Amino acid sequence: MRHVTLLVVTVLAFLFAGRVGVVEAQTTYSHLVVIVGAAGDDVYQEVFHNWAIELIDAATNKLNLSPAQITYLGEHPDLAPQRIAARSNRENIEQTIARLAIETSPDDQIFFVLIGHGTGAGEQSRFNIPGRDITALEYDGMLNLFATQEIGFVNTASASGDFVNVLSGLNRVIVTATRDGRQNNQTIFPRFFVQAFAQDVADLDKDERISLLEAYNYASREVKRFYEDDGRMLTETSQLEDNGDGEGSYEPLTSKTDGTLARRMFLGSFMNTLDTATMPQADDSNLRALYMEQRELREQIEQLKLIKDTMESELYAKELETLLIALAFKDREIRARGGG
To answer: What's the pTM?
Structure first.
């Protein structure tokens, strides 16, 4: 470990010596859109609405989002006319997405949380809403309106799993409550996903913020515990995808294929120092690509730190050393092209 410690010191000195051309950090805002679909009966209607209100209250009271940053679309706006902006039909969902695409800043993060029932499979997977449903493929087209914003799309409904493959793309975190369309029983995932933000239960890294990754991990873990405690077979297998390969991960930190973007998406406004402080402006497309690769390596290092306690010390040291060396060489490439 002494060798690794010395290496860390050396690499950090190399990386930050003579930094030039760094832009100032910018304020990134997050926006929350909660869509409650067609409930089917009064019992589900009340449960879905209560989950939505609990999440929105957490966003405003704990996470400091303003009412202007939150949109609640529900099946029955008369349930809470001061809280529900409009009916959750196709037209209002389309208008909400189009409005946010215009009103939000390029660096903003938009969270969509869908609560309700789902049906179908593949591109025709649907989240059930009043009137004609919107397919996963149609949601994909709507999300394409966001050119640079980071999107967290959380479909907590039954039969939601195929949304992962259809919606997967750059700057998107896709979370579903199920593995595929065949898992079509009502899900308990939304209960625990909301808890992650509403209660002090999911902040594993103790930074007093809840990332989308932390919320997913907490909800996924609690769903399994719920079924085990109830003595029932698990009928919903949640997944998260954020690297654009269309393949969801059940345990992102363990698989090491997903979770990087989800780890830095938070409800609330904050200074986005990680991205803006390490991403200087560059007209050279090759230099921009190098900056992106540099940021990815930095995020891999941070992600590795999160799972340090789950790894053998020698393996952790070896992987950390590999990443630090790669980061040092990447920084050298950037300097060689005139970057800072």
So the answer is: 0.75
Whether 26 and 272 have beta carbons less than 8 Å apart is answered as yes
CATH topology (fold) of 27-271? Rossmann fold (3.40.50)
CA gap 19, 22 in Å, rounded: 7
Name the nearest CA neighbour of 160 among 144, 140, 138, 175.
175
Alpha helices in the chain (DSSP H): 2-16, 42-61, 90-103, 136-143, 163-167, 189-198, 212-229, 252-255, 260-263, 273-277, 285-306, 313-336
Largest Cα–Cα distance in the chain?
65
**Per-residue confidence (pLDDT) for residue 340, from 0 to 100:** 57
Structure tokens at 61: 């009271």
Q: What single letter denotes the amino acid at residue 278?
A: T
Token reading at 199: 């209660």
40 vs 228: CA distance, rounded Å = 28
Q: What is the pLDDT of residues 161-202, one digit of tens each?
A: 999 999 999 999 999 999 999 999 999 999 999 999 999 898
